[in-house]
Amino acid sequence: xxxxRVVIMGAGPAGLTAAWDLTRQGxxxxxxxxxxxxxxxISRTVEIDxxxxxxxxxxxxxxxxxxxxxxxxxxxxxxxxxxxxxRIYYKGKFxxxxxxxxxxxxxxxxVETANVLLSYVWAKLFPIKPEPSFADWVTNRFGLRxxxxxxxxxxxxxxxxxxxxxxxxxxxxxIKGLSLREAIVNALASKKAPQTAxxxxxxxxxxxxxxxxxxxKATALVRKAGGTVEMNHKVEKVHWDETGVTGISxxxxxxxxxxxxxxxxxxxxxxxxxxxxxxxxxxxxxxxxAKSLRYRxxxxxCLVVKRAKVFPDTWIYxxxxxxxxxxxxxxxxxxxxxxxxxxxxxxxxxYFCFEGDGIWTSPDKVLQALAVKEAVQxxxxxxxxxxxxxxxxxxxxxxxxxxxxxxxxxxxRKWLSRFKNIQPVGRxxxxxxxxxDHSMMTALLASRNIQGANYDCWQVNTDAxxxxxxxxxxx
Length: 475
What we know:
Blueprint: E1 5-9, H1 13-24, E2 28-32, E3 45-48, E4 51-54, H2 65-74, E5 79-83, E6 86-90, E7 93-97, H3 101-125, H4 134-142, H5 144-159, H6 168-175, H7 180-188, E8 203-207, H8 211-224, E9 228-230, E10 234-241, E11 244-251, E12 257-261, E13 264-267, H9 271-277, E14 278-279, H10 284-292, E15 295-305, E16 315-318, E17 327-330, H11 331-334, E18 345-353, H12 364-378, E19 386-399, H13 405-416, E20 422-424, H14 427-430, H15 436-450
Helix pairs in contact: 1-8, 1-15, 3-4, 4-5, 4-6, 9-10, 10-13
């Protein structure tokens, strides 16, 4: 038999999980990562001047005992238990999330509360059928008024498109098991009582130095086992012939060219980039399907605040339409080790955008000024407390799940099935709603397929489990 050499495109959670699992079996692995510094993809932890911050917040929990065991094997000693505290900011008020009955009633007032309940009753009596969109799906389960208050503005900030364009699949994956009735049950229940909705977990694991610590450790283990992780190697061409994929080629930021051959290939780079890299090119209809896939880009403005404690939350959802910020992370409340001084706090103001739009192309100073202005407007800080700021742009952070994405990925999957030696894995790699643990599971299954199994990686998470489903460690 020919000795296997597995070439992995992308050093995010999926790519590195596959590399870690394969090297443990003595299989030769080569990983290409385009970034010159960071592994982990969107689960990286950026460090500047001793301040560490996430690209978004990344909780570690899974109802898969196997995924939990992988985390523990890669990094057995540096997890902490992080209590979840999050709120929603809307119309100048903070709503506890998960909902708490008295807090919600006081903030909404009796008239608005009555409108919400009447709207819910109407939705139960006259549901929208069929329900192809996010708007339809949520309205049927929460009523139109609550959809308008707590779902519409935030969701459209995140995705940059109308809720009517977003697939109902994504709604089912995000908030499965929760309706207004379930929310009320949880709101009235004791915090110590078992929660009926799986989407409302209150505690999770977190690496002491941020999620990037996990993937930095995974990279070290892959290299220690004899695998190769090449940084600053961007995949530009995927070479193939009638036998299958034969190799990849690309360049670094300095323009130096590289080429790598292999027997098996795993891709966690964006599915669009993978298809457009095929050389010879894929058929026109496959190229068109790939070009039709859409992505949402992401900017974090990390503000260093000269105050020991700013607010108690780990993060706050900003549903308020008068500001552009979508979410605010308090990294110190995730782990005190994320901030080098106990007298300081770092806040991550998150802006969802499209690469090339006005926010994306704004100079760093403009973004800093916007973040400070909006943090002050919300009432989180005073402008004079900000002593520094760091800006990180993340292209293709989130695949967009519009109503056509299933059709486009179906065309791509059908064509890719002709190749028996390449497997897409992970959220971006499959343009599939995979969270970190689901992405890792697709990678573990891909690794086992290379070792002789026959799993369908596309079936992971097709039961529309929300990424907060289950409690950390649940079997």
